[in-house]
Amino acid sequence: MQLEFCGLSKQFGVHQALRDVTLTVPEFQALAIIGPSGGGKTTLLRLIAGLEIPEKGHLCINSQRLESDEEALLAHRRTIGTVFQAYNLFPHLTALENVVLPLVKVHGLSEREALDTAGALFERFQLGGHAQRRPAELSGGQQQRVAIVRAIAIKPRFLLFDEPTSALDPEMTAEVLDFIVELRGEGRDLIIVTHNMGFAREVSDYCLFVADGEVQDSGHSSELFRNPRNPLLVNFLAKVLRY
Length: 243
Ligand SMILES: Nc1ncnc2c1ncn2[C@@H]1O[C@H](COP(=O)(O)OP(=O)(O)OP(=O)(O)O)[C@@H](O)[C@H]1O
Ligand SMILES: [Mg+2]
Description:
The protein is α/β, with parallel strands linked by helices. The protein has a domain of 65 residues. Helices cover 39% and strands 25% of the residues. The chain is built from 9 helices and 10 strands. The site of adenosine-5'-triphosphate (ATP) has 12 residues, from β2 and α1.
């Protein structure tokens, strides 16, 4: 897929979260967004998801401009799979119901179709044994895998991840990252905000470094990580890779 930001600005109160971001991201399959806390990564992801509207500027996905009217945004959101840091599963529903419900309520599938779709995905991703459990009865890694299955069940055009492993311990982190690598291997397009530099380098083909409300640097991941030139990025990598 391909992305284009044209003078994108987003303000929260007096705080400028993104400032006049103008950039063409060339064809990619997996895009990583990295950078310090508070820099604007989530804001950028939410703009791509159509969950926020920019004050100024616009963005294009595959050369198609994302309009800001509610109808266009709703239609847009339905075509994207999103997975955020906190699992956001409904606690009173089983894992399977968590996937089935949006398929029926939001995407208009019949109960039968939704159950078939969800059931097949649970089997395929080794979650079959967990289908009837509620989120509280699952580990963090399992919950997050259910959240990812929920995102792919809608057959999204692409997937957005916002620090999907930041609430997990190392073993569960690996489990979820393996899952994302598998999805990438299937040829799915994805955009991932991550603090895990090793993962960003391994999984992404292109990378944006966002800090202070701007895309400070960007490039093919292999090159950007091997030979960072932007002093802010050099500094950031030195800091996060120290331990
Ligand atoms: N809904 C909001 N209301 C007010 N300020 C916000 C809101 N969302 C984000 N901000 C502010 O905008 C700035 C950018 O936030 P954002 O969440 O995009 O950063 P981030 O790069 O994702 O950080 P982190 O790595 O900590 O998740 C921050 O200073 C944040 O406090
Ligand atoms: Mg964030």
